[in-house]
Design goal:
Chain A is α+β, with helices and mostly antiparallel strands and 479 residues long. Chain A contains 14 helices and 15 strands. Chain A is 33% helix and 20% strand. The first copy, chain A, has a 6-stranded mixed beta sheet with strand order 5-6-7-2-13-12, with helices on both faces. In chain A, strands 8-15-14-11-9-10 form a 6-stranded mixed beta sheet, with helices on both faces. Chain A has a 3-stranded antiparallel beta sheet with strand order 1-4-3, with no helix packed on it. In chain A, a hairpin with a 2-residue loop joins strand 14 and strand 15. The longest helix of chain A is centred in the last third of the chain and has 21 residues. Chain A is globular and about 60 Å long.
């Protein structure tokens, strides 16, 4: 059975290449439950495999042929091989976090095979501290980053005593399994599902992408972006210098991840009258400054980050935006001057803060189409690539994307194993070799840095620089 | 730079599908050297990565476009990412051979990405007995099974004290690196290289495939095969019953492997006046009988195996065959009645022995074109598939392929680590869900069983049956 594919999804398939795989990922770290059997991971793996009747979303394969006139459609995989998608792996010695990040970076480098359903889950043992990792990979044509993080939580419980929760691909999680398998184009915002973890049987894209679609993008997107990139709409553009982050990339990835206590970040915000987001951006700013300086590539002008921000439902409605079906938030994107040209941490934080305030104000003055265009940028790296090659575009519109995706506030468990860390993996593209995405969980903030292994060297060093910068910000705030 | 691809290689690319990946593999098991550092595997991996200038064969990617009129050609990978091709992995606990075979079966299931050079090497640690495994995977468009086994030996030394030997992809092993990168079609037999481990800079196919090509196949092959399959040429065909081995397969693989001492097999041969090959086939016969019987699928008629055999150079020349450049052997294929309908092990050995004798005699009576056709079958599963779908073909021409590839007789070492076992992985295709390939090494014979995970259940059981059958043959021979 062949069903249509929405334009956002097929855009990701058309944009994909060996150097630009279009999948998102998530890394979860679990502590073994007290008194767990030695075979805890193996048992978990085997239990997962018993859920061998995946929901429609996890069965579909992209299909394109003469019969579809070269357009991508969805077909159902009649020979789904669950053990291909769900794998049990181990780390080489000495089994440090370093070996884990190395493996996850490698797994994130490989393109999903288009001849099979576009997802993988890797259960990873062999960390010397006994923790267990889960790396999940889903194609952006199937799900966007925000929805992917939500999906990751579906197998978790807030009750440490609960076991046997069905894995994310199980039909048990699919509220629409008895309905028609896919909505026709265009997908309505209501398709985003009824419940908090509800999943449409079709493609899962958050309100963001759905809204872009509804507005008739990418045609409108193209026009607005072209203006923005050419600096004709001053509200959305700044001067972004060239850096090593802004070159053609390869298909190899490296991943770095670390947590910091949310309370430390909040503390700096309270003491300086700034937001958590401001402090996160200031951490990134100081870290990027040191990193580029060490490599002899710190530009004189400040780096510019593209930062997706949530807009209140009321503002969104006033601006004529489609509010999300999930409860009143719409998303826009602000171009933030990071202040990497400032030597003092407090000055950098101040620059970031002012830039965010004026950026959000500018966002309020933008037309709905402009906001949608910026929003689409945040979730749709696929459309950015072609933009960067527009005639007249001689510099990057910004240097990197920094996102902060809210995660669960309460502690979650997988078959009694507490989730200790949650880190998102994103999509570098040509011209944007590094992506920083943060996710809050429990009382910490997890940073996930996904970079091109060849053009963004020594990615791990950024973790040390981030840590150092948080300390510097605390000292500057008198903490 | 784009260079032509020979028809044998492009045949494998055209024939490939998700259910029929066209790569061969090899599994090598090494004992850790005495007094090796704890980081032996890691050090080995890092040393391998220093050889970061692969020979032309290991750099080429298949390329097809409008400009090539849809034909496959070879292009050079300008962004080769060695860490994509050479990987360091580990086994989950408890790290038995079972977990190793599970991992290797999974690695063998995945298609090589056509957008990159068609090879992978996995260095695997985590066996609880401390041994180290190497799984190597190469596309059949690049290399055939026999040449692949030879390639695997190139990194080894007969001297336990020798270290730092360049890995198989290193240009140091390539005697033609200063010459033109690839020969035009058709490749001449001389292209098979000058020395014992010599490698042409182009595609590496043994004399077998080269000879088929020179004869203008696959057109002639098609005609001859069609006659053979339709039972019009009695010399090459027997009645092969339908079994579970002879259905459509999926892309999932399982791998089973085990050694037996060559001396035990030779002992049975000496006592019964049969050859090593006869005893190997009798072991397979008894094992298949028990296996199919347990599954309730033992046919009344005997299974028929297709067995590639080496022909003496003199006979080959008399028959008008192209002798191999490598020293006078040509290869033919004999259809062997396995005697699975016989209850007694001695009777089965006798049936196999007589069938081999008459099959070799029949081979002597075949025309060169017929022999070539049969030969091509052995190395070219790609051509068999379409044949099985010819009008008028209502049964399989044989039930499985059993090959015996001679390996090194002396003990070999990798950086001081003795090679303890060597097992080939081959290519199941639609209609032929199981392939058994044996390789001699040192004083043992390694069996590699590659099967479709879905249609050939409980593959591991065959190992126990093979072992039991060798014992039964020894008792029958009065040993």
């Amino acid at each position: 059975m062949v069903t249509p594919m929405d334009p956002t999804s097929s855009g990701f398939l058309f944009a994909e290449s060996r150097a630009q795989p279009m999948h998102v990922g998530g890394l979860q770290l679990f502590r073994r439950p007290e008194g767990a059997r030695r075979t805890f991971v193996k048992d978990l793996y085997e239990e997962m495999l018993t859920f061998d009747d995946p929901a429609p979303l996890f069965r579909r394969v992209p299909h394109r042929s003469l019969a579809t006139a070269g357009q991508w459609t969805w077909a159902e995989d009649g020979e789904l091989d669950l053990e291909y998608h769900v794998r049990h792996s181990a780390l080489p010695k000495p089994g440090r976090v370093r070996e884990l990040l190395e493996l996850v970076g490698r797994l994130h480098s490989t393109r999903l095979a288009l001849e099979r359903p576009l997802w993988e889950l890797h259960l990873i043992e062999g960390l010397r501290d006994g923790r267990v990792a889960v790396y999940t990979k889903m194609h952006h044509a199937l799900v966007d980053g925000v929805s992917a993080m939500r999906l990751l939580q579906r197998v978790l419980s807030t009750d440490p005593a609960e076991t046997g929760v069905a894995p994310m691909w199980s039909v048990e999680h699919d509220p629409r399994r008895s309905l028609a398998p896919v909505s026709p184009v265009p997908v309505s915002p209501d398709a985003d599902g009824p419940g908090p973890w509800g999943l449409p049987a079709g493609t899962v894209h958050s309100a963001l992408a759905l809204a872009s679609e509804a507005a008739g993008l990418p045609a409108a997107l193209g026009r607005t972006l072209a203006r923005g990139v050419r600096n004709e709409t001053s509200a959305v553009s700044l001067y972004a210098p060239r850096t090593l982050l802004n070159t053609r990339i390869t298909g190899a990835r490296r991943f770095a991840a670390q947590d910091w206590p949310m309370e430390r970040i909040r503390g700096v915000g309270r003491a300086t009258g700034t937001t958590v987001n401001d402090v996160v951006l200031a951490m990134c700013s100081g870290a990027m400054r040191t990193y580029l300086d060490e490599l002899g590539g710190l530009p004189d002008a400040s780096l510019v980050a593209m930062v997706p921000v949530a807009l209140r439902a009321r503002n969104a409605a006033r601006n004529g935006q489609a509010p999300s079906a999930r409860g009143g938030n719409a998303v826009g994107a602000v171009m933030v001057r990071l202040g990497t040209d400032e030597a003092d941490p407090a000055d950098r934080l101040e620059v970031v803060h002012r830039s965010m305030v004026s950026g959000k104000r500018a966002l309020g003055e933008m037309t709905p189409a402009q906001i949608l265009a910026m929003s689409a940028l945040g979730v749709a790296p696929a459309v950015l690539g072609p933009m960067l090659r527009l005639p007249g575009v001689t510099r990057p519109p910004f240097n990197l994307v920094i996102s902060n995706v809210p995660g669960p506030r309460r502690r979650h468990y997988l078959n009694g194993a507490p989730l200790e860390g949650l880190y998102p993996l994103s999509i570098p593209i040509h011209g944007m070799g590094l992506n920083i995405t943060c996710t809050s969980y429990d009382r910490q903030l997890g940073f996930g840095l996904t970079g091109c292994r060849r053009t963004v060297p020594h990615l791990q060093r950024l973790l040390g620089h981030l840590d150092h910068e948080l300390g510097a910000l605390e000292r500057a705030a008198g903490l």
